[in-house]
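ENTRY TYPE: protein
CONTENTS: sequence, structure tokens:
***
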Amino acid sequence: MTDPPDNTRLRRGTNFDDHIDTAWRSYRIALGDALAGLADDDTTLPIARVGDSTPLLTATLTGAHRIRIRAGDSALPDDHDTQTAAVELLCSEGWRTLRDGTVIIEAGRRHADHLAERVVAALRNVWDVVDPAFLGSPDVGVGAPHHPPEPTIEVATVPTGTEDLLRRTRSAIEQMTGLLVEVDPVDHTIGLPTIPVASSIQASAAGVAIEFCAVLTAPVPDSGSAARYLTTNARRWPGVSFAVESGRVHALLRVDCAVFHRANVQAALDHWSAFLRDSAAEIDRMCSHTTLPETDGLRDSSAPPGLDAVLDLIRDNVRSDGFTVAAICGFDRDTVLRYIRHCAQQANRCLIDERTRKEAGDPTTECTAEANVWRHAIRSLGAALESVDAMEKMRRRTPDRPKRRRQ
């Protein structure tokens, strides 16, 4: 005697609802794994009924590396009242609507399982999918060999003015983040809910460009020390410029938009968000609570005559160019080299003092800060040396004009 069919076994040995719950549990686990495995190479995970080419939901990875699930354009009912009820039900489950009416839900990659739970609830309660057997496999397209898409023509636009530029930027930010953002009618800025400090986007006053801006500190106790710290560490934050205005540290990232394209705004937003997330708190801490030594404290009887003028320039103008420093040195190569040697000796002394204090268990902050000032002086003098050499080359290339005889 042969075994009865599977459906007979199901009716005899198990409860039908338990079987459905088990199937949905397996589907949820598989979907969570698939969502967590989404790559940032434009991979799309469709969730559709078997045999239906139009997906109910589509999952992608945003530029901010968040998993976003979007309801298909034709997934919701056509009837207005029914569609409104469906959207309200989705919103009660953690979904939200964008300005254009698109319904989405998103979260970080580590919350992929939670997203899978929300998706399963929506499939069962909104789209009335009884059994996941009516859906395609949730891992379709994930883990399969990636074939580069056919080349496409990207369309860029030329903004017609400041209002048009801000409007296009606002629209791009909303698409990237899924958040509703507005252009402030007073100062014409776009607010960004960045972490750990809020920031904004404004149209540049110089050229067709947008600028990401943020105030990183409250009024600092010593603006000069803050400026020297920022100058010393500027290489760590490429593309970001700083200014100390009214005692506060301002950061700015400029993006040229003579030809506007969403990809440029996306790259800038990612760079800006990473900078604020990784460095804003450190800059606030160092500029608000740590002061570098004043240049007056760096002078001693062994310093070469005239070096104090260079130290004053570096303190008062952190962006002093090599030509200005060279002018203070009288464009004399030997003077510049003598100053560099003295600064290098002082920097080495600070390092030795720092090592000695560290071995004794004493604080080393002052030694480190003073060494940074001497290193900055060496860099400025190195730029001055290049200016002196450039001037000397110009003199060699320019022949002496013959003196005119008096008649």
User: Anything to note?
Assistant: Residues 236 and 279 are 9 Å apart (CA to CA).
